[in-house]
Structures are given as structure tokens and as C-alpha cells.
Amino acid sequence: MSDTSRDKVTEAGVAVIGGGMVGSALAYGLAKRGANVVLLDEGDIAYRAARGNFGLVWTQSKGDGMPAYAAWSLASAAAWPDFAEAMASAAGRSIGYEQRGGLVFCVGDAERDQRAAQLRRLHNQRDDAAPVATMLDRKALHDLMPRTPLGPQVVAASYAPGDGHVNPLYLLRGLHAAIRRHGGRHAPGAAVTQIVPTGGGFTLTRADGAMLRADRIVIAAGVATTRLAAMVDIAAPVRPQRGQIMVTERLAPLLPLPASALRQSAEGSVMIGVSVEEVGLDTGTTVKELARMAARALTVLPVLAEARMTRAWGALRPMTPDGFPAYAQSSTYPGAFVATCHSGVTLAAIHAEALAPAILAGRLPDGFEPFHPRRFDVRTAA
Amino acid sequence: MFARPHSDTPHLTITVDGQPVGAREGDSVAAALLAAGVVAMRSTPVSQSKRGPYCMMGVCFDCLMIIDGVPSRQACMVSVRDGMRIERQRGPRPLEVDTEDSP
């Protein structure tokens, strides 16, 4: 059962701060390996990307400029089928996971050429041979989805067979249920306000005054990460970046594969994204962005003009300066870890199956140096 | 099941899935159908279970019907008109594709 803020949690082996997609995946991975875990969760009043994201399990386009991130995303996509099974079992229902490939549509020749160049650049940055995505021309797209009435301006798409999508709300439900199933505690209701390193461990204070002592801590607090990480001497710059999404009524199957900014859920809703806005802690929506997103979706699938839009929302991505994840252990206070990224859904499987055991063993995985947020430190001239 | 509190407005006729149904001017589509004993107005997109009006004031979206050819209209928010064509909406609605798709 969930603890409430009234239950004074006093001791834990590992305290995970942040009940969103990253913190929950880590808490699950730790709990299933026998750790004494508590997930400290501000609750649904938090700026929670996990309740507002698009739900892609996505590898194409990831890691342009950081090959380690591309490899990490691919490893997670490969771990997703088993992970999804565990999540569906814990959630007690389908989580809407499908991995049958994903598309990035190109409208016009310029977009096609740009996309092809980006794929080549991504491929050239990686040592392994197999390309993550290939370009499909209009004819190949038609062969792939003969019943999908694409707009005439769609000239091509990039296609990654390993990409997929999931219902992120059911995924989060599955994670929280799986944590409890493995003996972990989910403690929503109050943010962590203070972290004090004490005698080889950490003393945490929550907004309701409750205190907790933990041997180890993981800060996975999304847009609140920077402030908390500073308390264990880690500089982890994370800013909120807004994305808006709109969703249609449930429709008969129309788009069999998920695409960047356009996917049809297992229940039939068509989700339309996506915006990139620097507006601080504001989860609102704007007609300007929604109109632009709708126009783009209508270019790709003109038949959507008949569909009714039922909802729109904004959510905040926790964004580092270069957009790549940040993982670190404090060198001043060993045992304090930071984990933050804006790809919490894609990386959920690998967070649970590779990052959590590394945290349990007390050191980040080999090859993780590129992810350290010290890459953002201002370099002094030699 | 439902009784009208008054019955002094003119009679008119609508059709539900092609069958004529009596109504009164001023009725909403949902009210007219309930008065005629029609309770299930659609089936859901995912499980195909039956749904009828719940709120009767435009907020629950459970009374969606195809009205004069326009799908997903709220039957509780549309006033009847003589000769109005009402159809039950069954499952997820397909979008009309009016051209042959081609590569």
C-alpha cells in the first residue's frame, strides 16, 4: 500500500526522490533486486512529464552529438519487450505497448534531404554497422501502410523497425504497482525540500515536515533536479521546456505505426504533437502552437479534418543544456546519485534493468563518463 | 419510464436508424429518444458496450450520435427538427476517405 505523508518513514536503504517515469523505473529496478526502497513522490501536483508525454519508445534521431546516448536508447528499446510484459502484469492490464517500427514523415523534398543527411550523420557517429533507421520513399510507405491515406505532400519518411509506442499513463501505473509488488514503498504527498549528508548516509526533509534517513539517494526529480542536486554538490542544470499535445476522439484504425508528433493509441485516439517552448514553469496551451501542430498533422493525414479534437495539454520536459541525459554520483558525498532525462519512457526499461543495478552496486555503469553533467561546467581557458 | 411534464408543443417525427419515432418540438434529441424508450444511443469505441445519456447537460459526452450525417454530436445538446435523421454510433468511427489512395 502507498504510504501517506502522515506515515513517518524513518529508514530506507535507497530513497528515490521523484515519482515520475525516471524515479519510478529506478525504484522498480532497485526493489526487484531486493533493495529496501522508498519512492518519495511529490504527487500529481508535481510538474510531471510522466503524465503529459507522448508515449513513444524511440531510437531514431536520438544521440546526434552523443553516440553513448544513441547506444543507451537502442539498448533500452531492446530491453523493452520483456519490461513491457512485467509492466502489463503489474498493471493488471495491457499498457498499449507495440514495437512494430516508427516513422518520421517528410513533407517536401527539402525535409527529405535534411532527414536523410541527419540519419547519415547519426550513423557515422556510431561504431556498429547496422543503421537505426532507413529512408522510405512514397511507394515504400504505401507498401508499408496501404490503407493509410497520406497527404500528397508526404514524399518520404524515415523508418526505424525497432521503434514503438506505449500508453504512458498505464506504464506509470504499472511501475508504481511493480514497486509495491517487490516490497518497495511508494510515498506520495510531499516534495523533498532538503537533503543533508549525515554520517555516510543522507537525511531528507519533506514539505510536510516528515524526515527520512537513507543510506543512498537517487535524485530523479525532473525540473526540480537542479536545486536538489546542489545539496549533494552536483551541478546538474535542468530547465523546463514545454511541449503541447492534442488528442482526437477515438477513431477506427487509421495509422498503424507511430510517427514523430503523430500516433494513434491502442484505444483509437490520435495524438498530435509537438511543440518546443521556453516558457518556464507554465503548463498551459496556446492556440498558436495547437494550430501549427494541427496544420502539420493535416498535411500528413488530411482525413483528420473530419476528426474532433477532445483535449489539449501542455507538459514540461526536464531539459539539460545539450538535451542529453545527465547521470552522476556525487564525488563529495558518495551514495548520492542524480538521474535526469526527457526520454523517460524510452529509457524506462534500461533505467530499471541496467542503471538500477549499477546504483545498487554503488557505481555508475562503465562508459558513463559522457553522461556526467560536468560537461556543462564553464571551462577555464588554458 | 419517462413521463412528459407537459405536452402542448407540436408533434413531429424523426427517424432513428431509419425507424420513425415521434417527438415534440423543443425536445432535445436525447430527451425525445428517452421519452420514446430508446436508452442506448451508442456503443463505445473500445469495448463496444452500450451507452446512453447521463448528464443531459452537455458535459459527459455519453450520448454521442450521428445526427443528419454528422457523427459524434451530443444528442442532449441538439434540438429535434421534423424529419431529422438520427443514427446510433457504433464503436470507433471511421473517417471517410473520398479518394483512392495511391503511391
List the helices and strands and how they pair.
The complex is a heterodimer of chains A (382) and B (103).
Chain A: E1 11-17, H1 21-31, E2 37-41, E3 56-57, H2 67-91, E4 102-107, H3 109-124, E5 134-137, H4 138-144, E6 154-160, E7 164-165, H5 168-181, E8 185-188, E9 192-198, E10 201-206, E11 211-219, H6 225-230, E12 239-250, E13 262-264, E14 269-272, H7 287-300, E15 309-319, E16 326-329, E17 336-340, H8 348-361
Helix pairs in contact in A: 1-5, 1-8, 2-5, 2-8
Chain B: E1 11-16, E2 19-24, H1 29-35, E3 42-43, E4 50-51, E5 64-67, E6 70-74, E7 85-90
Parallel strand pairs in B: 1-7, 3-7
Antiparallel strand pairs in B: 1-2, 3-4, 5-6, 5-7
The total tally of domains of chain A equals 3
Number of helices of chain A: 8
Give the CATH class of the largest domain in chain A: Alpha Beta
CATH superfamily placement of chain B: 2Fe-2S iron-sulphur cluster binding domain, sarcosine oxidase, alpha subunit, N-terminal domain
Q: What average pLDDT do the residues of chain B reach?
A: 90
Query: How big is the Rg of chain B?
Result: 15 Å
Q: What is the helix content of chain A?
A: 25-40%
Rounded mean pLDDT of chain A is 94
Characterization of this structure:
Chain A is α+β, with helices and mostly antiparallel strands. Chain A contains eight helices and 17 strands. The longest helix of chain A has 25 residues, at 67-91. In chain A, helix 1 (21-31) packs parallel to helix 5, helix 1 crosses helix 8 and helix 2 (67-91) crosses helix 8 (348-361). Chain A has helices at 21-31, 67-91, 109-124, 138-144, 168-181, 225-230, 287-300, 348-361; strands spanning 11-17, 37-41, 56-57, 102-107, 134-137, 154-160, 164-165, 185-188, 192-198, 201-206, 211-219, 239-250, 262-264, 269-272, 309-319, 326-329, 336-340. Chain A has three domains: 11-53 and 169-238 and 322-376, 3-Layer(bba) Sandwich (FAD/NAD(P)-binding domain); 102-161, no CATH class; 239-319, D-Amino Acid Oxidase, Chain A, domain 2 (2-Layer Sandwich). In chain A, the strands form four sheets. In chain A, strands 1, 2, 8, 9, 10, 11, 16 and 17 form an eight-stranded mixed β-sheet that branches. Chain A has a four-stranded antiparallel β-sheet with strand order 13-14-12-15. The model of chain A is unreliable at 1-7 (pLDDT under 50). Chain A is 28% helix and 26% strand. In chain A, strand 10 and strand 11 (211-219) form a beta hairpin. Chain B has 103 residues and is mainly beta. Chain B has a single domain, classed as Ubiquitin-like (UB roll). Helix content of chain B is 7%, strand content 30%. Chain B contains one helix and seven strands, in the order E-E-H-E-E-E-E-E. Chain B has one helix at residues 29-35, and strands at residues 11-16, 19-24, 42-43, 50-51, 64-67, 70-74, 85-90. In chain B, strands 1, 2, 3, 4, 5, 6 and 7 form a seven-stranded mixed β-sheet that branches. The longest helix of chain B has 7 residues, at 29-35. Chain B is globular, with a radius of gyration of 15 Å. Chain B starts with 10 loop residues before the first strand and ends in a 13-residue tail after the last strand.
